# Entry
Amino acid sequence: MSILRADLPLAVLAELTHRCPLQCPYCSNPQQLLSARDELSTADWKRVIDQAAELGALQIHFSGGEPMMRRDLDELVGHAHAAGLYSNLITSGVRSGRDRLTALAQSGLDHVQLSFQDTDVQSAERIGNYSGAQDKKIAFAEEVCAAGLPLTINAVVHRQNLARLGEMIELALALGAARLEIAHVQYYGWALRNRGALMPTRAQVEAATRTVDAARRRLNRRLVIDYVVPDYFARRPKACMGGWGRRFMNITPSGNVLPCHAAETLPGITFDSVMDRPLADIWRSSVAFEKYRGTAWMPEPCRSCDRREIDWGGCRCQALAITGRADDADPACELSSNHQMITTLAEAESAETSDAFSYRRYHRPTA
Amino acid sequence: MNHTGESMVPRLAVGVRLKFDEARSCWVILAPERVMIPDEIAVEIVRRCDGRSSLSAIIDELATGYDASRELIAQDVCELVAELADKGILTQ
# Structure
């Protein structure tokens, strides 16, 4: 199996809306959430879907917020299917009904990713700040299977739910999932704000890795487990988004095109909108996509590193969050002169005694 | 890795598609959050994983088609099918 040629995007993440019934404190949406009136119209999304397919994208992830808040979701899924795209729905599962999933399956939806906040109901509903969510999610998983759609369970893990990782694996099996994605929180946006309440201890991270390794062996050919390791305990950075401007485009509810979810936190970069330019132009030649693409922008120690085309310098948003400079080497790398900062932060914050969350929600202007 | 015997009747798992991509002029395997480009031999194997043909039949057909030793083909086919089954791309 070879790696794909890098000049065409693999996938588009379509953030249809920021509206969501849940308020998870690690949400990847920006802290300034967009409202319904800022969202692209159905016709705009259809045009963008066609442009993505023409450009060579193979997959589209319908995400949000909660994408099921959009009444035109079926129509957009159908449009993506007709354009030849593999479509994936990333959902909290609390806004549904059997008819809706059947309709989505008939529209050509290929796959569903359903989030669970915890296996302990009280803890799960506290994390999402939504009472009654767990029963709805379990019913939703059953509806996904009844509609004949393949199911992945998404579990974001952190200090307050890692003790029940083994139960989460059992839950995914019991719900009929073929795949489980276990992702440690990545600290940008809302998660950065809640870092002290979420940061796991080193002992928890090590136990989680052992649990995943053992489950992978035990459940081979029953459950595929994808595991996203925690940057703050890493020795080398991840290739964030597979490298800036190499594989993914993230389109915000209002139509801005970003190389990653959190890119709008980077100062001094203007992001083009699908309302102003064709997607292909933005992908190939926009200032934002060119900014950190490839290796020419890299500082040392990345520039001369033999892993520069493996991790592509890691994550720009993380460099900004930790060192204050987006152009620095990702401090998750032990070769970064700032690596000690991230290690010290992780240790200090994992020992925080407060578990209180600052929930993801709209800020109402104060009088 | 689990044993992959020749009696296995492989097929693409639910949610996995094999398609020819015009933009890249090659076959691609599309799976949940994953895209793979199979090489020429892998394409020949995977497109025969239709849920009706056994591995044994697939190996026979390829050995005849490529005029190659059955033993050699069997080894390649079983290795690839085992790898893809472990990744959840193929099932039976």
